Amino acid sequence: MDELVPRLAVLRALAADEHVTHAAESVGVPQPTVSRWLAALGASVGAPVVVRSGRRVRLTRAGRLLCEAADRALAALEAGHRAAAEEVSPERGQVALGFLHLLGRSVVPALVSGFREFHPSVRFRLVQDSRQDILDHLVNGVVDLALVSPPPTDPAFAHAVVREEELVLVVPPGHRLAGRASVRVAELAGEEFVGLEPGYGLRQITDDLCAAAGFVPTLAFEGQETETVRGLVAAGLGVALLPHADSPSGLPEIPLTPRASREIALVWPADPPLPPAVRAFRDHALTS
């Protein structure tokens, strides 16, 4: 087992770089040793874990499966090591926080800066991604906490709603609905939409609102950032359901009838207990 960990570290390095020399440098061993380790790994699983591709190497299917298992195992080991260190001194801890792109402009900076006023030595690792990817990161131990919308229903997660945002219809200037005081979602059945890609929480909410109104939205364009979506709306390429803009955008924003909103939740694993620094940040976020 003692020999397996550095060999798996080599495999992870090759997955990222596909270069034996660089992998050897990253783990601090000679290149011939790396070659022997790769051969030994292949022999232990009964199939090669790498194949040559020109001057580089790439992982075989067996190699990828072994690498994915190594990622999960090492993430758990790193989390355990961190928890043990923090048990002695919580102020030395690290918080890995996953969140939606839209929350990176104001919500996350405010929470982190407020927390660090009282815990200046706690370090943060910030991960931005789609809702589904963030929840997957939480399951796999890549992040400790997540800020997502809508809240998950999976019993593997615990969560608390920390913010609620109204959703409005955003249309290009001069659009037929631009002067309306409010609009029903059902009135949008014939419109082309601009929205986020599947896997993003706001896309799920848009699909759910349209389904409740009796239609499936026609997505003319899909993106990963709400500001990109606003830009596409401004270009006249469709309408969108979005939170209010943080700053004036020049685009008409029309309230929905009945009012629609999204809940932003802080999410953490139901088990096991959170490390002290993570628990302290969670409690801060829930009371801010």
Strand order of the largest sheet: 4-3-5-10-6-9
Average pLDDT score: 88
The total strand number stands at 10
Strand content: 15-25%
Q: What is the 3D form?
A: globular
The N- to C-terminal Cα distance equals 46 Å
Q: Please tell me how large the radius of gyration is.
A: 24 Å
**Number of helical segments with 4 or more residues:** 9
Order of helices and strands: HHHEEHEHEHEEEHEHEEH
Report low-confidence residues grouped into runs of 5 or more: none
What characterizes the major β-sheet?
A: 6 strands, mixed
Q: What share of residues is helical?
A: 40-55%
How would you explain this protein's 3D organization?
This protein has 288 residues and is α/β, with parallel strands linked by helices. Helices cover 41% and strands 24% of the residues. It contains 9 helices and 10 strands. The strands form 3 sheets. Strands 4-3-5-10-6-9 form a 6-stranded mixed sheet, sandwiched between helices. Strands 1-2 form a two-stranded antiparallel ribbon. A two-stranded parallel ribbon has the order 7-8. Strand 3, helix 5 and strand 4 form a beta-alpha-beta unit. The mean pLDDT is 88.
Describe the structure concisely.
This protein has helices spanning 4-17, 20-27, 31-45, 61-88, 107-116, 131-139, 201-212, 226-234, 276-287; strands at residues 50-53, 56-59, 94-99, 123-128, 145-148, 157-170, 192-196, 218-223, 240-243, 253-269. The protein is of the alpha/beta class and 288 residues long.
